[in-house]
């Protein structure tokens, strides 16, 4: 199959849209604690959806994984688990910096490390990236993406200087710039491990292709292993919270023994490849209290499953887009990050995080978003040049 970079860009945009919207179905969840609905949704995100869709669209899934090199399976799982650990701090980034600035900083690190480390690790940076016209064009796109993130970050800092403490707290209750930057750095670097896991899983995709899987679906078996690693980290954390908060019974009983703690006081567990995050959920979820102390079990499972499946679709489309990038599939990570930042910034605007900021600050934000959109075009064009060689 001949690569089609512009089709790949469209797939990555769809993935960014899914990542930017997955939390919305959680507004239908009532009376459950965070760790309960997150883990239920996680079963669909990291286990059920990956295996079902990979079984449907790829050939001999179990045999492919059984015959994959043990080192590839181990590293893919390991990087998935590390990506999960990065998620333990990403929610704090949103909490301290807000969505627009928090996403920009964390995903900036994530984009840079996740895009450039794989070709450097394989010794291909000078030959495949810097040594070809198409590779240099893609590198320009990556730089434009990072500059766009920086401009969006400048807009966030400008907003911080302009708003009073009361205005900051009105939209971001625990705003703390220094603490947020430190947490965002750790989270962004660790969350880039997802890109390393996809790279480590390349032999799995090759084996799947040899078994007759169409090229566009060869990335799906990779996700089965990579997301299993992420599931491990998330599962352990949620179970610890179940034990600490005594909420494990909520999976099976509709009667709630006590009201779940306020959402803003709950621990947040997301990755820097997730958006828009808990803060969106706080604002879109219905805040009206339910009179009866019973959880609507069927509705809760349904909406959690819908949210989890929507989350998975970001990487379903990601792997489809990756197959269209030819020799420069490492650029897929930049496209994915840019798409997430674009949609999360739009969520931040819709949720009035920028209310009260000056025209200059809003212009900076608009410029940053334009640069991010433009970077996806540049990266797509670079891949087109590579495919046309």
Number of DSSP helices? 16
Number of separate domains: 1
Biggest beta sheet summary: none
Question: What proportion of the residues is helical, as a percent range?
Answer: over 70%
Strand percentage, roughly? Answer: under 5%
Spatial gap, N to C terminus: 15 Å
Order of helices and strands: HHHHHHHHHHHHHHHH
Shape: globular
Uncertain runs with pLDDT below 50, 5 residues or more?
263-269, 275-291
Features of this protein?
globular, mainly alpha, 389 residues, 72% helix
Concise synopsis of the structure shown:
This protein is mainly α. It has helices spanning 5-21, 34-57, 61-67, 70-97, 99-121, 125-130, 133-162, 165-171, 177-191, 193-200, 202-210, 220-245, 278-284, 297-322, 332-350, 359-387. Helix 5 runs antiparallel to helix 7, helix 5 packs antiparallel against helix 15 and helix 15 packs antiparallel against helix 16 (359-387).
